[in-house]
Amino acid sequence: MKKPIFPQMANLVIAKQYIKYFIAKYEVYLLPLSKFALSFLVLVFINDTMGYMTRLDSVAVVLIAALMCSFMPQNFSVVMAAAFIIAHLYAVSLECAVVITAMFILMFLLYYRFSPKDTLVLLLTPICFYLKIPYVIPLALGLLSTPLSAVSAACGVIVYYTLAYIVGNIATLTAMAADDMAVRFRYIIDGIMQSREMLVMVAAFAAIIIVVYLIRRLSIAHSWLIATVTGSLLGILVLLLGDLMWDAQVDVWGTVLAMLIAIALTKIIEFFAFHVDFNRAEKVQFEDDEYYYYVKAVPKITVATPARKVKKIHSPRKGE
To answer: Which residues contact residue 141 at a Cβ distance below 8 angstroms, ignoring those fewer than 6 apart?
Structure first.
């Protein structure tokens, strides 16, 4: 078997092959464990960010809920996270709970209609925003999914900015308890709908996903890298335009730094999902009774994993 183009990366390629073999072998155990870990992380994040209902802000409750999610379908984790959010908001304001419930129902209808398999996107997008690495989501979706994933990414962005708005204005919402219910509803809805930063971020995510998807499908060398860099530059451009036109309050240098981190993380994704040797690409031509076929074949980078050698040591028998 041919060696990879970079011999110094042989150990990394071998490690990748071992990881893939391990995951395939123990998938039946790793899948529920991963769902448990993700659900636990998301629910802890919700409790730490909000924490208004003390009954839910308990490790035991979170463990039980995460355990339920580990044995249920993946989308159940989204429903559980939404239930936690609504319960926390209900402890503060009935109007907040009603508005967020209606918003979640609308988003779930869009999500299940266009991208029902993007559960991880809805769960990880708010967390990535909290960790200051949000742009890894659209770059990864452009590389691994289709433009329809822009719907689920937009839902994740809306959830993050909506929760950020409510948490940031919780004192005002509490003080408005004596006002008319219609006034409180209007205050919440207007605050969410008038978030220019949220709208600009949704547009940037959609643009990145579509452009990265279109470029990475081209039959050119290093298409994934070109798609990642182009999508990142386009995302920065959209954010800058939004900042100039609508005063979206975009942190330029923070955006550039977050985009560089996202590019580095997507290179790790590329290493596991699309690690090929363009120097050994071949163009193949063949035909049948109806068509001529022109195919470009690019081999994956693989190395032979070292075989384990077991040396048996026999103790000498008596009399030998």
So the answer is: 118, 121, 149, 150, 153, 209, 212
Mean pLDDT of the chain: 83
Q: Name the burial class of residue 68, with classes exposed (0-12), middle (13-18) and buried (19+) by CB atoms within 10 angstroms of its CB.
A: middle
Helix or strand run (H / E) with residue 292: strand 292-297
What sections of the chain are H helices per DSSP? 10-25, 27-49, 59-71, 75-92, 94-114, 119-130, 136-144, 149-168, 170-175, 181-193, 196-216, 223-246, 252-273
Identify the residue whose tokens are 């078997």: 1
Bridge partners (DSSP) of residue 283 are 296
Longest dimension (CA), the chain: 101
Side chain identity, residue 62: V
The Cα angle at residue 303 between residues 298 and 309, in degrees rounded to 5: 160
Looking at the whole model, is its pTM more than 0.90?
Answer: no
Report CA-CA distances (Å) from 267 to 75, 107, 198, 225, 274.
Answer: 28, 31, 27, 8, 10
The 10s digit of each residue's pLDDT in 211-250 is 999 999 887 878 888 999 999 999 999 999 988 888 777 7
